[in-house]
Amino acid sequence: MNEKHRDAVGIFDKYAEQYARKYADHPAYVASYQRLIDLLPAEGARILDIACGPGLASAYLLQHIPSLNITGIDLSGRMLALARTHAPLARFERRDCRRLADLEERYDGLVCGFFVPYLARDEVRSFLKDSRQIISTGGILYLSAIEGAYEESGYQSRDGKDSLFTYYYSREELQRQLLAAGYAIEDWERASAVGSGAGELFFYARAV
User: Fold this and answer.
1) DSSP letters of 62-90?
2) Are 80 and 98 spatial neighbours (Cβ–Cβ below 8 Å)?
3) Domains of the chain: residue spans and CATH
4) Coil, strand, or helix at residue 189?
């Protein structure tokens, strides 16, 4: 784990509760989860929630499809503790989300909410390639990111402290990366980021 990743884990541990309160029930995110539900395979599908954070996506999915078999993974211990509270029907494990190749299971759906902003370009490429190896053909990948020019990526601070390196990606670049990894784009959406004028991207891609 490099310094940027260690910093991210520490900051998410520190602000886990605030993060959960800020993003719970946000209309754009709720709408994106509902769109995901429309595309997911049949009830009982196996879902991997990658960089699950406080388990908000898992909780929403299980609220609407209780038969889903969801596993969430994250490196933040505090986030995992919250996730187990928010989505007690899911299973949560402390794992490095960049090491999907270590997983032996295959899934019908992958949920990846705002993990990409903490991955460099080559890491996104490897991540998507590995994700295709653990998702069944026809399965759905949900991927969200912060929109912007990659060259403008850099450290962002929280109230002037706790700087976190954030990567920006254009819609076109992420589409190219998804297609190269073996996905077809089913749909995509853009929304305004919470608390800023930046854009957020939501992709729904099918493994082919």
Assistant:
1) HHH-TT-EEEEEES-HHHHHHHHHH-TTS
2) no
3) 3-181 (3.40.50.150)
4) strand
Residues 6+ positions from 42 with CB-CB distance below 8 Å: none
Helices (H), 2-69: 3-14, 16-23, 27-39, 56-64
Which tokens hold the place of 160?
A: 């002037």
State pTM to two decimals. 0.94
Exposed, middle or buried by CB within 10 Å (0-12, 13-18, 19+), for 83? buried
| Average confidence (pLDDT) per 10 residues, the chain, 208 residues | 76 90 91 96 91 97 96 97 98 97 96 97 98 98 97 81 90 98 97 71 98
SS3 (DSSP) at 181: helix
* Amino acid at site 1: M
